[in-house]
Write a structure and sequence with these properties.
By secondary structure, this protein is α+β, with helices and mostly antiparallel strands. The protein contains four helices and nine strands; from the N terminus they run βααββββββαββα. It binds iron/sulfur cluster (2 copies). One iron/sulfur cluster binds next to loops.
Length: 130
């Protein structure tokens, strides 16, 4: 799979992306022992595993090329993006920080399908009560 929005990278700046245990294991396995969990994530105040920033961008973001170094194995939340779950409104929404959301979600049915996956993921993988 290729990154269809190489010229942007806004979503990888000051990331607050939450990771699942599966995300962390997949990334560590991919680096075959050349990376420690503490290198790329930390436990947030809410107790979630969260992607670490390095100089205001995600640890895995290559600033010069605006590319994700782990695109094919990126965290599940990054795959869902720019569709996110708004906890205050209790619904999925396109993140307003993304300038090209319709590259990924061209219509309502695509959004609804992924929204079901997001809700399942939040409940079953991140153990978040909605
Ligand atoms: S998903 Fe949106 S914010 Fe992220 S790189 Fe693509 S266009 Fe930019
Ligand atoms: S893992 Fe990749 S897609 Fe996700 S925030 Fe980091 S650089 Fe961006």
């Amino acid at each position: 799979m290729t990154n269809v929005c190489l010229d942007c990278g806004k979503c990888c700046l000051e990331t607050e992306m939450i990771l699942s245990q599966e995300d962390v294991k997949r990334i560590i396995n991919n680096f075959k022992g050349d990376i420690e969990q503490e290198d790329f994530c930390y436990i947030s105040r809410d107790g979630y595993l969260q992607l670490r920033n390095n100089e205001h961008h995600c640890y895995f973001f290559e600033l010069s090329t605006k590319n994700c170094k782990i695109y094919d194995i990126r965290p599940q939340g990054c795959k869902f993006y720019p569709l996110i779950y708004d906890m205050k409104k209790n619904k999925c929404t396109l993140d307003e920080d993304c300038p090209k959301p319709y590259l990924f979600y061209p219509n309502k049915s695509e959004m609804e399908k992924t929204c079901s996956e997001i809700i399942h993921y939040l409940k079953n993988h991140l153990k978040i009560e909605l």
